Amino acid sequence: MPTQKSPGTFINSKLSFxxxxxxxxxxxxxxxxxxxxGRIGVAINFFGGINKLEHWGVSxxxxxxxxxxxxxxxxxxxxxxxxxxxxxxxxxxEFSSTTHYPFGYKSHFSVPERGVKLLHRLTLLNxxxxxxxxxxxxxxxxxxxxxxxxxxHTFNEAPGRNRTAWETGVIPTxxxxxxxxVVPDDKWEKLQAEIxxxxxxxxxxxxxxxxxxxxxxxxxxxxxxxxxMKCRHSFRRDFTGEAFRRGEHASVLLFASSVDEGILRVEExxxxxxxxxxxxxxxxxxxxxxxxxxxxxxxxxDSMLAMVPPTLKSLMVDDIPGAQRGASFxxxxxxxDILACADVYMLSRQFDFARNALRFYRDTxxxxxxxxxxxxxxxxxxxxxxxxxxxxxxxxxxxYQYGVYxxxxxxxxxxxxxxxxxxxxxxxxxxxxxxxRGAALYPDTPDLCGHTGNDxxxxxxxxxxxxxxxxxxxxxxxxxxxxxxxxxxICRLMEQQxxxxxxxxKREYFVDSIDSETGEQRxxxxxxxxxxxxxxxxxxVSADKLEKCASFIAENLATARGFLMYPRWDTSFDVDENxxxxxxxxPDMFVARCQAMAGxxxxxxxxxxxxxxxWKDLTYHEGHSAHTINDSGTLDWHGKKMxxxxxxxxxxxxxxxxxxxxxxxxxxxxSEGLARPLHISQLPFQKATLDLNLKGKGKFIRxxxxxxxxxxxxxxxPIHLLKGKVKIVFERTEKAPLHxxxxxxxxxxxxxxxxDNTGRLEAVVFxxxxxxxxxxxxxxxxxxxxxxxxSGEYDAKRREGKVLLPxxxxxxxxxxxx
Length: 818
Known about the structure:
Largest sheet: 11 strands, antiparallel
Strand content: 25-35%
């Protein structure tokens, strides 16, 4: 298969990543960056102009949320172009020593011949852009003023959209424009006719509402002391503030959904804009100091990982607790974008948001159709499109992960009625083999990828299995033994049928789907076959199959930029001009786990290099066009940042795949990973803060120290050792030991491990539900459970075994006798 050999670069980035926060000594540093905070998103060009400005207010979904737009390359068009007047002479604010935050920038501008040095900022708040200037030097005590230029044609006209002229006198120190949005009659009639119809011909769920038909965007441009406006030939407007000579001063572009809401906010911002800007920067620095730290030997990649938590925070909508936009631009609140990879919120200590998000999706769930996938712009938002019930297991997984990382199970009990409802609804679509029927949640157009309406999706069922494992744990804690047992029964069926149904023996990889009536495989091969959200998938698919997946992916899906959705020779490749012909980060967790298990260091290193390429442009990409073999070194969307694609996926692909760290309600398990030395610190887990030094290639323990104490025989760390500050040193080796090794025991705690002189391993374990023990032994071993021998599987070639431990909320002693 042809590949792009040289990544190339179209725009030479001038960014430095010596510190976690991206920085440019000279100029803006990148072609374009996209900033976000709550309801506001803005794209800023390298010369400082606004390219696009959007506000997600209470408005119809079907009119553009981009309110103003400039030009990406021409500085002629003025869209609130930030300037400064020095003694009456206007200057564009230029860039030097520039720091890029997820919510804006901080940069320097000077006029040396006039003795003026300024620090200027653009800071996004939940509903506003704050342009501030701090005087660092004004040797000659010259008069300084903030100034903005605006071309009227930058307002984004649309059918059904009307605006007033800029008005003064409505607020004391600025100008106001009111935008009225109304969906036209013919469009509205068509939208109403779509209610309770399916969004495509294979979907399992209907459109429930189209949201509001009307909306208001109330826009104010204000300064603390007032703004004068001069209109030039009814085409360009200059807004100029009052004079100052020292201190820090701010002007604000505010968006609101009503006059009353806007006027209340104006009073606060007029007095406190500078204070709010400084607070936002202080909070950012404090949280960055507290967040997990990564030392991978690659400064660009370290920065990319470090910026994930603050980027996610920049997408959170302050006035709707638990709501988060799906991207820094073009996306409102969605379902699986936030529910998937939710462990990132806990790992970055965003516990309040995680708790609020679980309540948000619970409280907005439709009584009949359940958890929402797409939400309206109403206040509060309503579910427009629900998820397929198997995909709603993402909510169950998120709830489980909240308990895993915090150790607080009260929210399990609070939200249990919803996950039980999801389970009971999904039972209608689960066949006698435990597999859930329904078209794939992903990509958006499964009907173009072989789905007919009679479908069983490998992607959906990978979610279903993990959700059922999580449900089993939660149900026991909530006292619902019957539901736990039913979930376990389906898991046992899936463990027998999943690989048998989806595995193509010829290609040695998973097919996208099978026919729900005939069981016939559809011979199309997605990189996103398994959505790897929990370590439970290791119990569904054997290590040898995952290693074969690694080979298929490396040979058919890997590129210089990441992984194709489908191989180029696949009938599903590039069939929709949206997703199928692109590179996506969606599969990265699955791909990284496979490559690590197969020891494919080359593919893991290539993935890090590809991630670097995007981050040098300050981009967490959604997708990257791969219709052609080469891309000429250009990105699809410079500076855009996605929530799930690929912000959270990159974070978890690194932790689970490259670092080989896995979390479950029983503790922390270590595994294969990247051979290069890695240091990860300040990683929270329940009552512990972990500091990990990892290195080496292989699946065995050369050295494992926990707070200086040497451990042998188990890659899962005994739970009682995970308290307070925990320093872990793990060195891998390919050399197999003489004694058995517990490789994994997901869903249960290991409380004690000993190995005697004969090589017999004994462990005390605890778990609420039956769990799979995976172990290494040089030869077939007898597995004893409280003195009773258990039968299991043993692969003589790999020298690995697997046995189901019948745990039931009691401690048990297991023995592995070689």
